[in-house]
User: Fold this.
Amino acid sequence: MASLKNNFLRSYVYYLTFLLLLIDAFNLSIGPFIYGGDIGGITAGFGLNQYLVQAIFLIILFLNRELIVQKLFPAFGVKTGHFLFQPLFFRRGKSSED
Assistant:
């Protein structure tokens, strides 16, 4: 999808992918501290501790962030110096300056 010639479609796919990777994991990990969210239904349905579910989704959030930084950004040619979007783990065979 990153090689699409149509800029509108290419941008749409980029932002859709970016948002879908972050929003749900954020909603279930950090969201309950701010506004409640869907965590109550999940914990009631599965019979799990709320903080355990939040911890699992926080790990998923960090993994998704890493996917964005190391896979999505290079595929779409995005370069950023923002501290939130620097790799936590460097890719093998690549220097930290790539």
Summary: The mean pLDDT is 85. The first helix runs from residue 7 to 29.
